[in-house]
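Key result, reporting period 2: structure in, sequence out.
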């Protein structure tokens, strides 16, 4: 099964991708991770990408598509994959379609984990992180501001990412950039929308039941 996964900030898309990957026995291809790995392995495209990133420039679509092509051609992607983090624009979606056709990797399933903005804002603003180990926990589980994971004292703080206005801005950017991509997919493939509220396991069950 080939899946392209979309999800708003805060819905736990990465976690869902990992669960799906182990339940369906297909690799989780996170474009952020494969870019980092191409840079570490110093592949031709990795070197090109690093040069641009060092100059503070964005990695252009051709390079990202090249890196995705390399990954999809690997043996592990033969029986399917979960692509996470790409495409982010309609132009990238078109590039990806061309690539999948070239590699004879159709059809695919488009999954979008949706959310209630109020719930996301509530969840993300009601948590703190540990300065020492980056562990994240909800406010109602905090006893004396010490970290239950590493034991550091007075180490919990609200990340600047978790401030309400920052979350609102991220949701706004996500909605305005992702909506056209989903509209594009809706023209040919049917986008599978899954409600992303509730417990992690409930959300994965919901996704799996819609996929099979
Ligand atoms: Zn800690």
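The corresponding designed sequence is given below.
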């Amino acid at each position: 099964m080939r899946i392209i996964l979309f999800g708003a900030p805060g819905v736990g898309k990465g976690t869902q991708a990992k669960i799906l990957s182990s339940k369906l026995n297909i690799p989780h291809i996170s474009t952020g991770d494969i870019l980092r790995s191409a840079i570490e392995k110093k592949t031709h495209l990795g070197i090109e990408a690093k040069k641009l990133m060092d100059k503070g420039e964005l990695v252009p679509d051709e390079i990202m598509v090249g890196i995705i092509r390399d990954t999809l051609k690997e043996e592990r992607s033969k029986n399917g994959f979960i692509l996470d983090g790409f495409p982010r624009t309609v132009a990238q979606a078109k590039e990806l379609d061309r690539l999948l056709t070239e590699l004879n990797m159709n059809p695919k399933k488009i999954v979008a984990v949706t959310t209630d903005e109020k719930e996301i804002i509530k969840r993300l603003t009601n948590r703190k992180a540990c300065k020492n180990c980056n562990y994240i926990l909800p406010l109602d589980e905090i006893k004396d501001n010490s970290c239950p994971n590493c034991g550091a004292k007075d180490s919990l703080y609200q990340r600047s990412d978790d401030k309400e206005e920052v979350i609102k801005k991220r949701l706004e950017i996500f909605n305005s950039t992702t909506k056209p991509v989903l509209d594009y997919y809706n023209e040919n493939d049917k986008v599978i929308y899954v409600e992303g509220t509730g417990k992690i396991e409930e959300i994965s069950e919901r996704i799996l039941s819609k996929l099979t």
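Residues 130, 132-133, 135, 147, 149-150, 152, 155 surround zinc ion (CB under 6 Å). The CA atoms of residues 28 and 82 lie 5 Å apart. This case is discussed further under Risks and Mitigation.
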